[in-house]
C-alpha cells in the first residue's frame, strides 16, 4: 500500500490567501472565503448552506479576481475544492492576479 504522502495529486502549487468571496450554485448564493489558490484551482471555506457536490458547476465572485467559473472537485464539512474552468478569460484573470496582487499569507503566531 502506498503512503498518502507519496501520491501526486496536485499539478500546481497552492498559495495561502485570505480573500472574501461569494459562491453561486444554481439559485443559491453564499458568502465564502478563499483560503488557498493556484492557477488551476481554489480552496473555499463556505459560510452557509450550499448544496454543491462533486461535478457541480459553481461561479466564484471576488473583488480581486472578478467572476470565475469552476467545477467542484470535493466538498467536505463547509469546505470546497474547485477546479477553475480553463478558458481564455479565466487564465487572463489568474495570470493578472498572480502578477499584480498576490501576496503569500504567513501565520501570525510563531513558536
TrEMBL record:
Single Gene Ontology MF annotation: cyclic-di-GMP binding
Pfam families in UniProt: PilZ (PF07238)
Biased composition (Basic residues): 12-22
Residue segments, region Disordered: 1-22
Ranges where the PilZ domain occurs: 10-90
InterPro entries per UniProt: PilZ_domain (IPR009875)
Record-given protein name: PilZ domain-containing protein
Species, as recorded: Rhizobium terricola
Amino acid at each position: 500500500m502506498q503512503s498518502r504522502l507519496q501520491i501526486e495529486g496536485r499539478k500546481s502549487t497552492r498559495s495561502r490567501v485570505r480573500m472574501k468571496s461569494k459562491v453561486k450554485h444554481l439559485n443559491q448564493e453564499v458568502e465564502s472565503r478563499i483560503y488557498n489558490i493556484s492557477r488551476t484551482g481554489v480552496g473555499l471555506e463556505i459560510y452557509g448552506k450550499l448544496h454543491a457536490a462533486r461535478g457541480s458547476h459553481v461561479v466564484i465572485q471576488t473583488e480581486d479576481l472578478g467572476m470565475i467559473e469552476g467545477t467542484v472537485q470535493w466538498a467536505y464539512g463547509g469546505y470546497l475544492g474547485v477546479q477553475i474552468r480553463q478558458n481564455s478569460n479565466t487564465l487572463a484573470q489568474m495570470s493578472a492576479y498572480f502578477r499584480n496582487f498576490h501576496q503569500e499569507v504567513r501565520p501570525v503566531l510563531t513558536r
